[in-house]
Amino acid sequence: MRLIRFPCLLFIVCCLLVLCLQTQNDPGAIAQEWAPSWQLPQRDRPANIIEAPITGRGEMPEGRFFPPIICGACHTDIFQQWKGSTHAYAWYDPLFRALYQKGLQEAQGEQQRVVMDTCVRCHSPVGFTTGEWKATPSMPGSEASKENIFCDFCHSIKATTGIGNAPFIVDPGDATKMDFGTKRGPFKDCPTTAHKTEYSELHTRSEFCGSCHDVSHAGSRLAVEQTYTEWRLGPYNTGNPATTIHCQDCHMRQRPGVPSTGSTERPDNPGFAAGKQVGGIERPHIWTHYFVGGTSLILGPILQEPERQKMAEDRLKNAARVELITPTAIKPGELFRFRVMVENVGAGHCIPTGLTEVRQMWLDVAVADADGKEVYRSGTVDEKGHLEEDAVVYHTIFGNEKGQPTYKIWEATHVISDYRVPPKGQRVEKYAFLLPPDIKLPLKIKAVLRYRSAPQWLAVELLGDGAPTIPIVDMAEAAQMVDSR
Questions:
Q1: Average pLDDT of 219-223?
Q2: The pTM is what?
Q3: What is the DSSP letter of 133?
C-alpha cells in the first residue's frame, strides 16, 4: 500500500497566501462582482492595465461586434486555427454547460448566484456584455454571442483593470454601421486596411491570458482557478523581459507536430497574419490561434477534431516525466519499498491546472513477477471508468461551509487539499508491499502518469447515462526490472 502523501509544496501555499492577501474582503459584505484577483504594482504593469471602470453586464449592444467569418476573409489561416479551438466552443462544452445549469438551479443566496454569473463573463463575453444570458441562460441568443470567445472580442479589448475574473474594458467598432473600429494586437507596424490597428503591450504578455485564466469566488474570494498565479509565482516568470516565458510562448506557438512546451523547442512560425493581397506583412513569427491545452474531451468525442485532439495529447505527453527509484536488489518474503517521482518538466503552471477540483491526473503503478503475474497494483480504472480510491491523485479538493468535499464551485468556501505538481517541481510517492516467499524474480515495475479532464462518474452525474467516455491520456511512464541479491 502507499504509505505517505507529502503535504502541499510551499509553492502552492504561497499561491494561496498571496491571493488571500490581495483579495480579502468582509465576509459579511455583498458579493464583489468581478473584482480582479491580482493587481500588479505600477512598475510591472503593461501600459494598458489601467484604473477605470470595466465593461459591465448589458452595456454593449450585440450589433457592435463582427462575426469571426468576417475576420476570416483576410485572416484566413488564423480563422481556420481558431474555429476548431476550445475558445470557439467555450460555451458549448457539454460538461461546462451541464455544470453551469446545475449551479443556476442550486445556487443559494446572492454570493452563489453571482458566482454563476461570472462564468458567462469568460465563456460567452459578448453574451455577458449584451446582457443576453439573463434571458437565455442555456444558450446566448444573438449570432455574435454564439461565437463564444472570438476574434473581434479579444482584439477589441483596449485595456483591463487587473488580472483575473475578466476585468476587461472593450472598445469595438460598430458592425451595424460597417465601422470596424480599432483592433489591438502584438505588432507595431500593421497597415491600416479595413480597420485601424494599435499595438497592445497587454496582448503580448501573460496578463492578457490571466484576465480569464485566474478566477476567484465572487463572494468568498476563494481562489478557484489560478493558472496565471501559478505562472506568476513560478520559474518561467523570471522578472526579466529577455528570459521570461509567457503563456503565449507555449500556447500560441504550438501547431500540428510542434508541441511547444517547456520541455521542447518553441520555434517561430513564419508567415502572414493577413493575406499579402490585402496588405499583410510577412513576419518571422505569427502567433498561432489553436489555443490547445490539455482538454481532449470536447476536441475528440464531441467535436470529432482528431488533429486538435492529437495536439492536446502532444501537449500532455510533453508536460511531465516519471522516474522509478528502487532498491538495487530484493529478497522474497521481505517488505519491498520503492518510490515514484513525478516531475513537471513542460508546463509553466501546476499540473493539472484550471478547474482542478474536476481534473484528474494520477499514477497507475503495477508490479509483476517473472511470469507476468501481477502482484501489486495501484491506480486502476474499472470497466465503468471509476478510479480506485487508493490511487495517488493530483488535484484540488474544495470544501463547503459544512466542511464536506464538493465539486460545486458555487458552494465552495475553502480548500481542503491542493496536491499538484508545480512548474519545474516534483512529487515523490512512496509505495510498499510484502513479497510472497515463493515469488518468482525478477520483478517488473511500471508507473504510468495518466490524465483526464474529469472523472467518468461526474460526466454521468451531469450528462446522464449517455455521457461520452472521458478520454484518458497517458502522459509519461517508466519501467524497471528488479532482481534478487
A1: 83
A2: 0.90
A3: G
